[in-house]
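Figure caption, in words: inputs first, then the predicted bound structure.
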Amino acid sequence: MPLNPEKAFENSIGPGILWLVHPSIAENLAMYKFREFLPVPVLDSIGSILKEEGIIDGVTRLPMRYYTAHETTSAGERYAYSLPPEDVCPNGYCSRNYSELLNKMANSQKVREMRIAWKADVVMFVHPFFDVINQAAGQAYQPKYMGDRNNKHLAYAVAGWGYNLFADQYYSMHELFHLIGLGHSVHNTSQPGTNTARAFIGKYTDNDREKTVYGVRSFMAYNDVCKVTARVNNCIRFDHFSSNKRYVELDNGEKLRLGSSHDNNSQTAVNFIREVSNYSKILR
Ligand SMILES: [Zn+2]
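Bound structure (zinc ion present):
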């Protein structure tokens, strides 16, 4: 909890995050190490993507970004990293079933109090293990309709750390983007995107001798779904949101549009990011 909630940062430059750190990660890493391994690189990479999308804060005219909720103290800034409260992980045990965990977070009185105290718009749980029950490396709620006041109750995500000592940034980034409404490709049968909140999957033929066909996907599209849809062995990820205005350069010298009017996660981000950035102001 912040030492002085009065000093907690209130801003709408983008979604402010409260990070819940699984006890076994916290045990193995000092908090400053955690920050360096995960939030800093993840938020930097998210910032670069949002900058490329040209999503600008109306007041400062600067690119919008995600940031870690924090307060200013005489010793500097204190960040909103915390062990999960008891009503999320009873006796320090956190479910490895991400759906169950999300549900607990969304219903936790303690998490609600922490969100209010830190003025955090969204909450991200960092898990050391993947969810083998649901075969997931992350999971998040996704707001579907703009301006619905209940959207603030969808501000929860969980992501796996990854296989390595260094955290895999992709899972956390992917889940944090779901929180501003972004969706998967229409070819994801288990979780198809709604409206235009959809990632893009396409393909192209290289001009090598074998005329190799490569899959192409935007940031939110699954690699395995891309491979199956495009019937290819390799699918290249472009770290942009799908958009009818985004063109990417391919190795065969041609340009490909990384989206359409239906596959337009970029527009979805524009639609939702300001609303999400203001969740903490309407929490009670
Ligand atoms: Zn996803």
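The chain has eight helices and 13 strands.
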